[in-house]
Amino acid sequence: MSKPVLLQLCPFPDWVQAPLAQTHEVIPLHMSPLSDAKLLADIAPRVRAIATHGGLGVPSEILAACPAVEIVAIFGVGYDAVDLQACRARGIRVTNTPDVLTEDCADLAVGMLIALARGIVKAEAFARGPWTRASFPLQRRVSGMRVGILGLGRIGVAVAERLAGFGCDIAYSARSDRGNGLAFVPDPVELAARSEALIVTALSNAETRHIVDARVLQALGPRGFLINISRAACIDEAALLTALETGAIAGAALDVFEGEPNLDPRFLALPNVVLQPHHASATTETRQAMGALMLANLAAHFAGASLPTPVV
């Protein structure tokens, strides 16, 4: 029996690539320019699966060019860059790799909050010298801080669990009250107003696009910190840059950016930010688990079995 043809849109670690090649006829489109229309035209009619990552998704022209595709397997949790409506209309299954990256993302969210509040990055530079007799400026305490979590999915819950150990006063906004004992504040502006730190863990979709806007930032105020472990689209980046430059908020710790890896140069000039290279799930343990889950979804589909983690 011939192997199903799989269109690969991005590089994968060896522990994914090797088993993928054993079970599929892999067409590495990421090794050729996406503008190579001839390559795509030659192989598109045979493609039964597409493998990609959450940030890239599947460009609409590629999805449209593959009439026989049956499944899109995402190496990651995000699926906002995949046209789910088109997939549903065509009966294309979509899978992602949730849960396995929850702990790492929550760890980094809390780590970024501590780094921002305690000035860890600046203090490290201070200690490297020249370390004069002058003391490093006083910073902010995280223990007991009032924290708002915007979006209380798996990662938001894990962040709340960690911050409970710091004795933080935690509230959250979500589509509905989860009845979990935490303070539910449905309005993001209200949530920001009661928070010293606002942590964004919401899904990225049309409803949450720029959910953190100028009004939310103004409510967060000049002592407020913003931490984003979700997607760049959840924040109005232009409004955020203005708030950081004018002192409308105290600082921000960000793992995601519009147009990354090409950051707006205004971020690089700011003293009140902690910048991370979109690596919340980037541990060996999590990436191996993500790869195993993506492969399991593909194997289940072509075996006619239930998908472990379907989106559509």
Account of the protein in words:
- The mean pLDDT is 95.
- Helix content is 37%, strand content 16%.
- The protein has helices spanning 14-23, 37-43, 60-65, 84-90, 102-118, 120-128, 154-164, 188-193, 214-220, 237-246, 265-268, 284-303, and strands at 5-8, 25-28, 47-53, 71-75, 93-95, 146-150, 169-173, 183-184, 197-200, 225-228, 251-254, 273-275.
- It has a seven-stranded parallel beta sheet with strand order 8-7-6-9-10-11-12. It has a five-stranded parallel beta sheet with strand order 2-1-3-4-5, sandwiched between helices.
Assess the beta-strand content as a share of residues.
15-25%
In what order do the strands lie side by side in the largest sheet? 8-7-6-9-10-11-12
Average of the residue pLDDT scores? 95
Terminal residue distance? 27 Å
Superfamily at the CATH H level of the largest domain? NAD(P)-binding Rossmann-like Domain
Number of helices: 12
- Parts with pLDDT < 50 across at least 5 consecutive residues: none
SSE succession: EHEHEHEHEHHEHEEHEHEHEHEH
CATH topology of the largest domain: Rossmann fold
| CATH class wording of the largest domain | Alpha Beta
Name the CATH architecture of the largest domain: 3-Layer(aba) Sandwich
